[in-house]
Amino acid sequence: MAAAAVEVAENGNVESPESALIFLGTGCSSAVPNAMCLIQPSDPPCHVCSQSLTLPPDQNPNYRCNTSLLIDYCGSEGKHKYILIDVGKTFREQVLRWFTAHKIPHVDSIILTHEHADAVLGLDDVRTVQPF
Questions:
Q1: Chain segment 49-70, per-residue pLDDT in tens
Q2: Buried b vs exposed e over 9-41: b needs ≥16 C-beta within 10 Å?
Q3: Membrane-crossing residues (predicted)?
Q4: What is the pTM of this model?
Q5: Does 89 reside within a domain?
């Protein structure tokens, strides 16, 4: 598989000339691990929640934030636009983990799928990724 060309923009961010989908979170509304599974474990204990604490979050498939998706759209002129779908309670953690790893400098648009806490309670934290 050929490696994609990587460019460094004037602001120091690494830019790829391709579009991408970045899954920021794939967990349920309470995220994973579920706190109740850990503080009042069932008998036998929940395997997924117990396993979620065995590795660091960035290496652990069972440590998951609220469901959210970032579309990194790269147009024909090579300019990136970032479209965020849902901004849940765990958005700050998603920014610290994935925006830094993928060098996402800002968000251009937000799509909210519904008005529940798992989709909107991170809206206040959007200010941290906006340049203005």
A1: 888 888 888 788 888 899 999 9
A2: eeeeeebbeeeeebebbebeeebbbeeebeeee
A3: none
A4: 0.78
A5: yes
